[in-house]
Amino acid sequence: MAVVTMKSLLESGVHFGHQVKRWDPRMKKFIFAERNGIHIIDLQKTIQSIKDAYEAVRKVVASGKSVLFVGTKKQAQQAIQKEAERCGMFYVNMRWLGGMLTNFSTIKKSLLRLKKLEKMEVDGTFENLTKKEISSLGKERAKLQKNLGGIKEMKETPGILFIIDTRKESIAVAEAQRMKIPIVAVVDTNCNPDGIDFPIPGNDDAIRAITLFTQIIANAVVEADNEVGLRIIETLGDEDEDFDAMISDVSVKEEDREIDIESYSAESEEKAKPEIEENEETDDELPLEADRVYDEDA
Fold this sequence. Notes:
It is built from eight helices and ten strands. It is an alpha/beta fold and 298 residues long. The protein starts with a strand and ends in a 51-residue tail after the last helix.
């Protein structure tokens, strides 16, 4: 049986929103308070939203449909791939190609092409080609694998989407809404929860928070046939700090700020420090949002 505790939510920094000046007023109903210029998310509402999303995912999987995990921001890529593979579902963690849902028939042609190139590589076809042709086909396969590898075996549109950061994945949200596919999404204080079927208010930038949410949804897939479902422990232990004291540390807890994925690894997550380069940009990746700096003078 999957278990989620209030302590795990607090320790993962789920309650940390963005700076007050960057909020979306439509998130007001999910905001508990404001500390040091940062909005604090109401974890009681987060817990209820997790319950609703968990049950929704279980029902979809139990009906025989699939779940598509979507998260292309740097902090989410590793968790999205790992948890989707753990529960045997599909994922998009590098780039959302326009039409992945609304024009899936065309996407399927690209998937067939990817499978054909992989088959050519192992059945001896490359032995009869020139080095230049092999190089060209290899680059084509690598590009297709990068963008479509997570949905290679997807035969039809998914039954539900799980999305990290609806602002960054706005195209995925729009396509799912057009196709009337239910959406479970983590919405931060700068996001618009309207139009999201199962919004989960929470931090969508910190790696630990993203990992926790993704694990919960993956567990819902794994536990789809379990009648017990999700158990949530909403109280803190006697030895723990009270809730107000824990959220008051927002300005001094470095590990709860946004973490740069470049300095992150599974073994050294606790040692990673925030490092945001506002002007750093590559052809393939968008720069990290620089608005989750909780200290105004940082």
